[in-house]
Amino acid sequence: MPGRRAALYIILVICLLLSLWLGHPMFFHLTYLALGTLVLSLAWTWSGVIWVRAERHTRTRRGQVGRPLEETIWVRNLSLLPRLWLEVRDHSTLPGHQPGRVLFNIPPRAVHEWQVRTPCMLRGLYLLGPMTLISGDPFGFFEARRDVDAVSEVLVYPEVVPIRDFAPLAGRLLGSEAKRQPAQFITPNAAGVREYAPGDSLNRIHWLSTARRNRLMTKEFEMDPLADVWLVLDNDRRVHPEAIIPAFSTEEHAVKIAASLAQYFLQRARAVGFITYAPERLCIQPDRGERQLSKILEGLALTRASATTSLHDLLSLEADRFGRATTVVLVTPSTSLRWIHDVRRLDIKGVRVVVVHLDPATFSGFFESAPTVGDATASGGTAGAFDRAEAVVQSLGAAGVLVYPVRQGDDLSIALSGRPGVGR
To answer: What pLDDT is stored for residue 331 in this prediction?
Structure first.
């Protein structure tokens, strides 16, 4: 394209010089023709991007790894002239998302529309857009570009896998252990109705009973007999080495496991909380329902293994948060033995601890850097760190802690649905 334009400039200059030197009308006509072609080509190119409007519509601003993200792109030709060609370049940060294309022969006032389905491959927050419109004249002399701020954000949740049956939870109070204590606030457990008393909130009035008995009746609630479940994700960057392929890293496996367990417990009407440091502290208080699952998945989508807080420090800082009969599920690839003492103290306190331990030795083929143990690199380098994984599992088993060892390549649905123990 620059070569054609340079040739046109040369022809224009030569014709102009010959017309001035020889005075022949033919050279004047050629000069006017070259100059007119230059001006018309420039005007055509300029209008080719100015009188075009591009829009995008994303069906949902929430995606999930393994599921497609659907988006519709519209390009409208607002000019009375046809567009011979128009290139749409997209600058989205979502991996694999390439909605851009080259359009040909767009009629005047016409709309060109196409849909894009992109499988979500990595969790995180991504930008869709902006776009760049590129067009030119029919002779290929000029090319014009215009940036279009058609930008939207999409949050990709981590993948979740179905879990059939996880470890039994000590926090499940059954029979005589289920303490039926009246609650001064609304809980999911309605115990009955009573007559209205001054000071009762209007949202606690049971209108059906009120209509039937012809006097105000108030709902009574009792404490939940099912104790909370806390998911604790170890995001210490020293135990999550950088991976060549992010999808096969210990970090992504740990996030997928935490997301799957959150879905498992919430589907069973358990109150689930979530804690991690990444590097800022993220604490989601226990709650139930789809909204709680969305909050946890959103936190997991944005979290990164960037903390310098070890699992030992995390448990020391958050130990007072875990009450008696609470279940704490730890997800970690740490090969340090320091945090096992914190687990034992929680067990003495009456907290049930279940550990999902990722074996870093099986992820070694995907590492860019060697993993570390606790707060320092293990003696013997990577091999020394890997050798301690089995020691961690055995130490947890000796302490009576339920352990789910997870290795690279395991089917997580099966690995997390089996009987917990020491090793396999």
So the answer is: 97
3-state secondary structure of 196: coil
pTM: 0.77
> In the predicted model, is pLDDT for residue 395 greater than 50?
yes
The alpha carbon of 370 is separated from its chain's Cα centroid by a whole number of angstroms, namely 26
Q: First vs last Cα of the chain: how many Å apart? A: 66
Alpha helices in 23-158, H assignment, sequence order: 25-50
User: What are the beta bridge partners of residue 87?
Assistant: 102, 134
Q: What residue spans define the domains of the chain?
A: 49-157, 180-222, 229-415
Please name the fold of domain 229-415: Rossmann fold (3.40.50)
Mean pLDDT of 407-413: 89
Distance CA 91, CA 122 (A): 17
Which fold would CATH assign to domain 49-157? Immunoglobulin-like (2.60.40)
Q: Copy the structure tokens of residue 305.
A: 């293994």
Tell which residue, 256, 335, 263, has the closest CA to residue 65: 256
Given the structure tokens 């990164």, which residue do they identify? Answer: 304
* CA-only gyration radius of the chain, Å: 33
Sequence-ordered alpha helix ranges (H) in 51-191:
none
pLDDT digits (tens, 9 = 90+) for 9-39: 677 677 777 777 777 788 777 777 777 788 8
